[in-house]
Amino acid sequence: MRTRLTFYVILLLTLGSCASHWQVTEVFGENCVLDSNEADEPSIEHVIQPYRDSLGAEIKRVLCMNEVDMTKGRPESAMGNWFADALLQEARKTYAGQIDFALFNHGGIRTSLSKGEVTVGNLFELMPFENELVVVTLPYIETQNLIRYLVITGGEPVSDLKVNLNDSTFSSVLIGALPLEKRDYHVLTSDYLSNGGDNMIFFTEGHRTQRLNLDLKVRDALTEHCTALGEQGMPIQGMKDGRLYHGQ
Predict the structure, then answer these.
(1) At 213, which helix (H) or strand (E)?
(2) CATH label of the domain that carries residue 84
(3) pLDDT (tens digit per residue) in 4-51
(4) Domain shared by 126 and 229, yes or no
(5) Are residues 55 and 143 in the same domain?
(6) Which of 40, 60, 86, 99 could staple 225 via S-S, CB 3.0–4.6 A?
(7) What pLDDT score does 34 carry?
(8) Which residues are paired to 159 by β-bridges?
(9) Alpha helices, DSSP H only, in the chain?
(10) 134-161 confidence digits (pLDDT tens)
């Protein structure tokens, strides 16, 4: 007995050199004639296999190399420092305006990166969410609240910011290479945090002066960063450098 079966194949991702987010790009249907007397129908596997193979190959695609095992930690870590630095570098390539420093959240980094090859799949595990990068403008008083938040939590991933977590006067704070000033600051973060995620109230409407969406996903920025390193034959070099510390 032969029957006709209609089934659908959904191609889930198409990744170019500048984008790496999952998206449905094509849906199509095909009629296959099935023989119920056969234990297996090779025509089904014949249609599905190319898509299974392409998805598997993309997830395993190597972007760059990592020189050391990196895990997250507080007050700072090689993982958190690299994460914040890489995103700030990529954001500054995209955004023509000023970005003074970056702040992300410890909990947003979902896994570690082992020494060796870094693949597309590794970055999906590291950042499985669809968070996007935004630049939030904070007045001076809210920038102080941001620094107080770092003291309370014991540290979060930051870039171009150095804080003595024991200094309640903020006299030792450096943004870039400059002391904290009484002015607005432009801070790179994620849309999740800019909406008050992880109790970062200082980023929210009514506290911030402005928010600009960069239309760049966190995971895509990391992928672009790693791809560029790989093309240059350079490895990831995450390390602690004392940007968040407990001083006297």
Answers:
(1) strand 210-217
(2) 3.90.780.10
(3) 443 333 344 434 334 444 444 444 445 444 454 444 555 656 655 665
(4) yes
(5) no
(6) 86
(7) 45
(8) 102
(9) 42-59, 78-94, 120-126, 140-153, 191-194, 218-231
(10) 999 999 999 999 999 999 999 999 999 9
Report the DSSP beta bridge partners of residue 55. none
The average confidence (pLDDT) of the chain is 86
Judgement on whether residues 173 and 230 belong to the same structural domain of the protein: yes
Domain that holds residue 8: 2-59
Q: What's the CA gap between 67 and 65, in Å, rounded?
A: 7
Structure tokens at 53: 């193979």
- Token readout for 61 is 């695609």
DSSP reduced 3-state for 50: helix
Rounded percentage of the chain residues whose pLDDT exceeds 90: 75
Other Cβ atoms within 10 Å of 234 Cβ, number: 12
Tokens of 168: 């309640």
Q: Which residues contact 205 (CB under 8 A, 6 or more apart)?
A: 211
Among residues 14, 42, 59, the one where a domain terminates is 59
Contact present, 225 and 90 (Cβ < 8 Å): yes
